[in-house]
Amino acid sequence: MSKMIVALLMAPLFAFLAAAAPEQPDPKKAEGEKGTLKVPASFEGKLDANDPVDAVHNQPAKTHKLRLAAGKSYVIDLISSDFDTYMRLEDGAGKQLAEDDDGGQDTHSQIVFSPEKTGDFKVIATRFEEGTGAYALKIEELKYKLAKAQEIPKGGLSIDTKLDNTDPFDQLGGKQRFKLYSLKLEAGKAYTLDMTSNHFDSFLRLMDSRFKVLESDDDGGGNLDARITFRPRENGVFHIIATTLDGELGDFNLRVKEDN
User: Fold this and answer.
1) Could you tell me if residue 173 is inside a domain?
2) What is the H or E stretch that residue 4 is in?
3) Which of 201, 136, 143, 145 is closest to 172 using CA atoms?
4) Do residue 155 and residue 251 come from a single domain?
5) What does each C-alpha distance from 183 to 83, 86, 156, 256 come to in angstroms?
6) pLDDT digits over 48-90, tens only?
């Protein structure tokens, strides 16, 4: 049999073997880097001691790609019961945009981010110092049901109400039940926000119109009461999250006044 005939007979076999062979990893691609996650996303992974070391935090890390849209706000949670999580957020060029250790509940990390431009971003999931094991990475758009924005009357705004089991759970922090109030505030004026309760440990969070967290407080008002003092740079609508730090529910008072 001639060499030409043998080559023609063997060609289909070679083509089949090439197609069936496993794809070889690209050595230039960072180990642990995953495909782009679609928001909302929920990813379960495992941090190992031999994972690539994060150049910034100097700990083993996994990298996850995200596609985020301008004009939206996102909450990114890194959760583990095996180790104290630590998380960084970078843009596509590798510039760090945010980092967090315990911004979520207990030792979980949480980042709230509002991109100026639509683009690709990276979440670096790592540990604070020690430990390895399973983790969950969750990304979702930050959304709140808004009411009509209120103006601050001359004598201040005072609201007596209560937190109960009919109130929704917050997406941020300890993810406790909350009430939201939208306020019209004026640039250059100073405002004091007080939340007091005899039933639970008060917690206040102040956000801008895109839900970017501007200020938060636990016991700034003394005892277990929360207080925020704020001077906006621009006129606009701002949102107050009135919630409970310890998970208990009951009556509370929210007061907002303009400082003289």
Assistant:
1) yes
2) helix 3-20
3) 143
4) yes
5) 39, 34, 12, 9
6) 999 999 999 999 999 999 999 998 999 999 999 999 999 999 9
